[in-house]
Design goal:
Number of strands: 12
Largest sheet: 8 strands, parallel, barrel
Structural class: alpha/beta
Bound molecules: 6-O-phosphono-beta-D-galactopyranose
Distance between the termini: 17 Å
Helix content: 25-40%
Order of helices and strands: EHHHEHHEHHEHHEEHHHEEHEHEEEH
Radius of gyration: 21 Å
Shape: globular
Number of helices: 15
Length: 472
């Protein structure tokens, strides 16, 4: 692996920061996403958060209180030898309603202190501008990303942070898992549907608006600092045909395209032919302004970042089980074992996915999420023996190294997800843990929030120390 390879870890404000009423932060999307039975309907945009019962638990409001613990957590990241750390800004900490002209100084100062802390340890900050997040006011007042006005609010926010952190941050990601908006529109993009609304048109309109916002952010970023590296971000995972039946193969091509659609535009600069045809055939009419095409074409991303948890699989014979626990509808792949949450485990699929993306786009890749969500047990002697996590990461890192060294992929870095335990996006649980660092907190919010090093902590430290050569 190259000497400057960015080993690190990843988190996001919505799932770790908390401090929802501190430092002048405004209400955010995550503050109204509940724990429990209504979570899915809310995330899918099929239930209005205002209908939730009074005693609802909102795990993201406090999360692991990174807002207060960030120094301690960063010290632990430094101890593991992190070269970079991916995190996100909370938009409403900087613009409480999203509509202000002037930013909330306290919010900017918080991120400045955080970034300075990273730089003190020579850890490169990688900032996600929008990770499943938007000020709640923009959701209530404008219907979130379905409305073009939100593009301007987003760009104003970008302009402020690009200028403020001009000399301190180099890597920026415009939207986390941009394709998630098709599957969990409220969590992904703040979209809640009215009864009887034409959902597919709303989703593609919101996608178009985000894509224009993303390209415009690239333009702005390069104007402010030509050294900025701006990336898109895909929830990746190649789609396998269940069999070599041509129908299965064709279905897998179509399913892959549903995800590539976003990156085709962000990396190649235009709506691909298949997407234009699809929109036409479905009678989806989008509001596209005259200059949009030009912006999309001229301001493509510098790199492509991605999350990879598993491959996907499709079959068209209507038989067999569905793969559990996955928001991407998928058939169960009989060759793969699954995690405790039913997510398939497929390290070779990682190499396949990286190759597919690199073949298609020929731009540097950055793996900004990967990992195993598992239940951990804090032993009486204070240790956590998470060998299952080490096994998962080891197999995936081997596949990643093969993709780089044998297949020739240009890879910037690797930041496993939830390097410190945090709230799960899909389930809202604390017990679905990814970290090298355990956080004492349960699904109902009880616990001391004490941080404890897991067995994987020392293992990952050695991986970084040896630049991936010593996986043990
Ligand atoms: C991705 C998100 C993350 C993260 C991760 C793991 O979709 O970008 O925010 O949470 O998946 O998913 P989960 O938390 O549901 O296990």
């Amino acid at each position: 692996m190259r000497k400057d390879f960015l080993w690190g870890g990843a988190t996001a404000a919505n799932q770790c920061e908390g401090g929802w009423q501190e430092g002048g932060r405004g209400m955010a999307l995550v503050d109204v996403i509940p724990y429990g039975k209504d979570r899915m309907s809310i995330m899918e945009g099929h239930m209005d958060y205002k209908e939730l019962p009074k005693d609802t638990i909102y795990p993201g409001r406090e999360a692991i209180n990174f807002y207060k613990h960030y120094k301690e957590d960063i010290a632990l990241f430094a101890e593991m030898g992190f070269k970079c750390y991916r995190f996100s800004f909370s938009w409403s900490r900087i613009f409480p309603t999203g509509e202000e002209t002037e930013p909330n100084k306290e919010g900017l100062m918080f991120y400045e202190a955080l970034i300075d802390e990273l730089l003190r340890y020579n850890i490169e900050p990688v900032v996600t501008i929008c990770h499943f997040d938007i000020p709640l006011n923009l959701v209530d007042k404008y219907g979130s990303w379905r409305n073009r006005k939100v593009i301007d609010f987003y760009l104003h926010y970008c302009e402020i942070v690009f200028r403020y952190f001009k000399d301190k941050v180099r890597y920026w990601i415009t939207f986390n898992e941009i394709n998630m908006l098709m599957h969990l529109p409220f969590m992904g993009a703040g979209i809640c549907f009215a009864k009887g609304e034409d959902e597919i048109t709303v989703k593609y309109q919101a996608a178009h608006n985000e894509l224009v916002a993303s390209a415009s952010a690239v333009k702005l970023a390069h104007k402010i600092n030509p050294k900025f590296q701006v990336g898109c971000m895909l929830a990746a995972g190649s789609v396998y045909p269940y069999s070599c039946r041509p129908e299965d193969v064709w279905e897998s091509v179509k399913k892959d395209r549903e995800n590539y659609f976003f990156i085709d535009i962000q990396a190649r600069g235009e709506y691909p032919t298949y997407a234009k045809k699809f929109l036409k055939q479905k009678g989806i009419h989008l509001e596209i302004e005259a200059e949009d095409e030009k912006i999309l074409k001229e301001y493509t991303v510098d790199f492509i970042s991605l999350s990879y948890y598993n491959s996907r699989c499709v079959r068209t014979d209507g038989q067999g089980e569905a793969s559990k626990g996955n928001v991407f509808a998928s058939a169960k792949n009989p060759y793969l074992e699954c995690s405790q949450w039913g997510w398939p485990i497929d390290p070779l699929g990682f190499r396949i996915t990286l190759n597919a993306l690199y073949d298609r786009y020929q731009k540097p890749l950055f793996i900004v999420e990967n990992g195993l969500g598992a239940r951990d047990k804090l032993e009486e002697n204070g240790t956590i023996e998470d060998d299952y996590r080490i096994d998962y990461l080891k197999a995936h890192i081997k596949a990643m190294i093969a993709a780089v060294e044998e297949d020739g992929i240009d890879l910037i870095g690797y930041t496993p997800w939830g390097c410190v335990d945090l709230i799960s996006a899909t389930t809202g649980e604390m017990s679905k843990r990814y970290g090298f660092i355990y956080v004492d907190k349960d699904d109902r919010g009880n616990g001391t929030q004490k941080r404890v090093r897991k067995k994987s902590f020392d293992w990952y430290k050695k991986v970084i120390e040896t630049n991936g050569e010593n996986l043990f």
